[in-house]
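Researcher: For the annotation table, I need structure tokens for TIGR00341 family protein. Please keep the output clean. Sequence:
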Amino acid sequence: MRHLQIRVEAGELDAVVDALRSEDVDPVVLPLGESDADSRSYLVEFPLPTEAVDRIRETLSEAGFEERYLVIGNIESATTPHYDRLVERYVEGDEEEERVSNEEILTKAHDLNPQPTAYYGMTVLSALVATAGLLLDSPALVVGSMVIAPQIGAALMASVGAALGEDAMFTNGVRSTVAGLAVAIVAAAALGWGLKTAQFVPSALNVTTVQQIASRSSPGLLTLVVALCAGAAGGVGLATELPVSIVGVAVAAATVPAAAAVGIGVAWAIPAVAVGALTLLAVNVASIVLAGTLALWYLGYRPSYWDSSGSTRRRLRSFFGTRATWVALVFLGLTVLGPGSLLTSQIAFENGATGSVQTVLDDPEYDALELLSVSVEFGTVGLDDAPRRVTVAVQHPVGRQYPQLSSRIEDRIRETTGRDVVVTVNFEQRSRSGPS
């Protein structure tokens, strides 16, 4: 529920009050100052359901009122003669529109981004917790780092700036996001180097075998889905009355652990981990901002000049004349041409490898086997011609041996994908009471 206060000049008062009452709004008019009635200004205030704010402002604009002084605040409850009608129309009826005004969404996005000291301080703390969680292979600690990460505000600032054509806001959002994640990488690298040097963590630890790190060492389809959903959910939450704070965990899930993995790769001097996690981080950041922008556009948010630009050609000319648009296009282009193309290649290889494994196991000779999982390791994030490593886990009956299975899978994957591959098959025995 919102409480609006507008300043109205004496010559506009009758038109404003009539327009409000025609929409079932009950205004209170308060005179300002002690000048004569013809030159006096008035403060007009009234409560509205959140969903009605944009409609009432449009009504006032159509009545010839120009917003020179407008304050929109939150209130808990209101009782006016016709407020129930407003609720029926805009909350329960056909005129329902669950979105906030452009000014309010700008304010909400700014409020989500804390002051630099708090932002970078919480970023460092979340990166340290994420680094510890990755090295300990502890999902609980990794989730804990997501809860305290402050990245949601900067990412949504970039999305709102792109959707509304606010160059400064978009630039600040991108700058804050990149700077925050750079700080997270440095903090993770410093902690990793310190732990390794002080031998709290064995210097010979092969971090590529730690599951929590390996899963964040290259982009994948599921991580891309998480980033897209997080960005879209953030946009919807920001534009409606839904809570945005919960979405921050999803945004952090797509960014903070990946930044910590980059730092670990730097600390252990393993390019495969550092470059792979950085690729994942770039793809996720671009996906979050893009999905948030598209969600806001879907909900009807446009640049302020959009309605006044006239034809579609003039609108597009205005849109592509903004700095936010070009920065977004360059950022998106670099992501698509670089990490995005790598992601597509890796997804294609994963699909081909999984299909090849299933094809081999469909042979009657392997009817007694049950496929448990297929995992793919891309070496130096798939940037060179080194053989991909595919690990297949199957369940087999006690006493049965399949010595040729790995070589047959290798041949099939090589034939399907055209890439060199090393296959490892892990056998898990099935109890005698199980199916044969």
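Researcher: And a one-line annotation?
Model: The longest strand covers residues 388-397.
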